[in-house]
Amino acid sequence: MATNQIELTAAISALQVFCGPDLAQTIERIEASLQNTTADTCGAALAACGSRAEVLSAAGLVKRLAGQIHVIIHALGILLCLPRILKPGEVIEYVSLGAGNTGRPFDLETNQRIAEFKFIRWQGGTEPIRQNALFKDFYGMAEYPIEKQKFLYVLGTEVPEKFFNGGRAISSVFSRNVKLWKEFEAKFGAQCRTVSDYYLPRKSAVVIHDVSPFVPELVDAATESEEL
């Protein structure tokens, strides 16, 4: 059976049957059952333990879907936030739900605002890659020449605000984005050496807003997706 012919529910069911209540114990049992098998008996032994090509196809399908979980959570998170953040009379001009370069500058633009969404469950420790992405979104909106409100929507504001008010070097934040770092240096020179140097004079330019009360399920979903 081809992978694309397998329904998700059937795929999950096939994997559950193969894995049993405890995958480690199932693997041990299969290993034991294959001892002393030969070319003549191996096929029957595999059939007896449920090792079928269909189960492999099912695993492939679930793996591909799991690889898209971050995109799914990001898209659904934005969609479920929209009814809670839009004001009466506010009109969506575009929404960008996909990952990567979509050709649109922000996740959301309406006739009244531009916005970015960062659905990260912050751990509170050193999280440089996440900090880099957060700063890039803030910087992109703060410098964008438009007469609209600007919002950065996050899951909890305590950790992001601690980062923005901290002393991490801007050069470190842009260490993996040479083009953006050169642009920043050319524009600000020695004026902004740390994150707080840049943020504090511009903190009112972009509203950092916690959306976890709007969609509480986002917190658990973001946490679980990071564990995949």
The sequence of SSEs as H and E is HHHHHEEEHEHHHHEH
Query: Ends: how far apart?
Result: 26 Å
Largest sheet: 5 strands, mixed
Report the helical percentage: 40-55%
Number of strands: 5
Task: Tell me the quaternary state.
Answer: single chain
- The average pLDDT score comes to 89
Major β-sheet strand ordering: 1-2-3-4-5
Radius of gyration: 24 Å
Shape: elongated
| Tally of alpha and pi helices | 11
Low-confidence stretches: 1-5
Total count of domains: 2
Q: What share of residues are in beta strands? A: 5-15%
Helix vs. strand class: alpha/beta
Annotate the secondary structure layout.
Elements: H1 8-19, H2 23-33, H3 42-48, H4 53-66, H5 69-85, E1 92-95, E2 108-110, E3 113-118, H6 128-142, E4 149-154, H7 158-164, H8 170-173, H9 178-188, H10 195-199, E5 207-210, H11 217-226
Parallel strand pairs: 3-4, 4-5
Antiparallel strand pairs: 1-2, 2-3
Helix pairs in contact: 1-4, 5-11
Question: What this model shows, in words?
Answer:
It is built from 11 helices and 5 strands, in the order αααααβββαβααααβα. It has helices at residues 8-19, 23-33, 42-48, 53-66, 69-85, 128-142, 158-164, 170-173, 178-188, 195-199, 217-226, and strands at 92-95, 108-110, 113-118, 149-154, 207-210. The chain is of the alpha/beta class and 228 residues long. It has a 5-stranded mixed sheet with strand order 1-2-3-4-5, with helices on one face.
What would a concise description of this structure say?
The chain has 228 residues and is an alpha/beta fold. Helix content is 50%, strand content 10%. It has eleven helices and five strands, in the order αααααβββαβααααβα.
